[in-house]
């Protein structure tokens, strides 16, 4: 048995939440490091500590509140993870992605995920926001894939397609909204590479990842997207470039978590505006998308 891939466990968690909130979310939002303010935008919020939710892991990271918040955003019923789970916390990858399946069972159709990431692309600046067009799942190369183990057809197929993981229409919507809001100069599009962490990358690793086609590197999101796509939810993801990855041996710079949180604070308001305006324009999509 793999933690998190158990349909009954996810169903029980979804039913527990459905019995405690009137909100019937169609949009799920995951707040990355320093980006928890997104959850504060929800109207008539109702929140649950992760530690009170059956089968949920606990959030152990500074900068992640560890709460699930239900409410409406621009009139759309939403559920928001204020803080997420990571491989480096020691949880199995099936456990850190369990919320995606719970959301699916609660009726969520669209997932919006945010994270903080290191910029590998030399054109990126700290404070840029990268729309994910694709990912490289490094742990997956070593067999750490959230879909490993017996497949439950009630969630999705054994071999799900990932070439359309990041919804094209939502990416276009992001650029349209950014243009209207005057954010075009800091909105980028690129490839996100996930690593297990918690140590930041070495200089050699950064150079390797960049050569392999990654524009940004982080420790989250891709696993969640794999599980969400498996279950037929549409996905959109943003990386806030919180630091420049160190690529040369003469550099005195050092990656650190405080810088990650600080950049989040500086860009938070614009990121919230971008996401909430996008949510306002989301149409209801069927699960076939
Ligand atoms: N590397 C990995 N994860 C990160 C980084 C980074 O430089 N910045 C924020 N999350």
Outline the low-pLDDT stretches: 285-289
Q: Round the mean pLDDT to the nearest integer and report it.
A: 93
Q: Name the CATH superfamily assignment.
A: Nucleoside phosphorylase domain
| Global Rg | 18 Å
Helix and strand element order: HEEEEHHEEHHEHEHEH
The level of helicity is 25-40%
Separation, N- and C-terminal Cα atoms: 30 Å
Count of distinct strands: 9
Kindly identify the CATH topology: Rossmann fold
Q: Mind telling me which CATH architecture this is?
A: 3-Layer(aba) Sandwich
**How do the strands line up in the largest sheet?**
5-8-7-6-9
Please report the number of helical segments: 8
Strand content: 15-25%
What would the principal axes of the Cα set say about the shape? globular
Task: Indicate the CATH class.
Answer: Alpha Beta
Structure description:
- The protein is an alpha/beta fold and 289 residues long.
- The protein has a single domain, classed as Nucleoside phosphorylase domain (Rossmann fold), CATH 3.40.50.1580.
- It contains eight helices and nine strands.
- The chain has a five-stranded mixed β-barrel with strand order 5-8-7-6-9, surrounded by four helices.
- Helix 1 (7-20) packs across helix 3 (98-106).
- The chain is globular and about 55 Å long.
- It binds hypoxanthine (HPA).
- Residues 116-118, 200-201, 217-219, 242-243, 245, 255, 260 line the site of hypoxanthine (HPA).
- Hypoxanthine binds next to strand 5, strand 8 and strand 9.
């Amino acid at each position: 048995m793999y933690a998190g891939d158990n349909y009954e466990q996810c169903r029980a968690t979804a039913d527990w939440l459905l019995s405690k909130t009137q909100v019937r979310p169609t949009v799920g939002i995951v707040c990355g490091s320093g980006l928890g303010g997104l959850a504060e935008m929800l109207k008539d919020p109702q929140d649950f500590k992760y530690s009170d939710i059956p089968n949920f892991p606990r959030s152990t990271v500074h900068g992640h509140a560890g709460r699930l918040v239900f409410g409406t955003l621009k009139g759309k019923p939403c559920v928001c993870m204020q803080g997420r789970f990571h491989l480096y916390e020691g949880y199995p990858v099936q456990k850190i992605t369990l919320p995606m399946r719970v959301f699916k069972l609660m009726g969520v159709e669209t997932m919006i995920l945010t994270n903080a990431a290191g910029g590998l692309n030399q054109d990126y600046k700290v404070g840029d926001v990268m729309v994910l067009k694709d990912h490289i799942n490094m742990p997956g190369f070593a067999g750490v894939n959230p879909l490993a183990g017996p497949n439950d057809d009630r969630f999705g197929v054994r071999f799900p397609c990932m070439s359309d993981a990041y919804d094209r229409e939502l990416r276009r919507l992001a650029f349209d909204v950014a243009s209207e809001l005057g954010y075009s100069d800091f909105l980028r599009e690129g490839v996100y590479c996930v690593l297990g962490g918690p140590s930041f990358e070495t200089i050699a690793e950064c150079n390797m990842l960049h050569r392999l086609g990654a524009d940004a590197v982080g420790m989250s999101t891709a696993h969640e997207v794999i599980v969400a796509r498996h279950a037929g939810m549409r996905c959109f993801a943003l990386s806030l470039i919180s630091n420049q990855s160190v690529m040369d041996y003469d550099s005195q710079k050092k990656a650190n978590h405080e810088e990650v949180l600080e950049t989040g604070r500086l860009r938070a308001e614009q990121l919230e505006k971008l996401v909430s305006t996008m949510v306002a324009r989301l149409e209801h999509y069927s699960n076939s998308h």
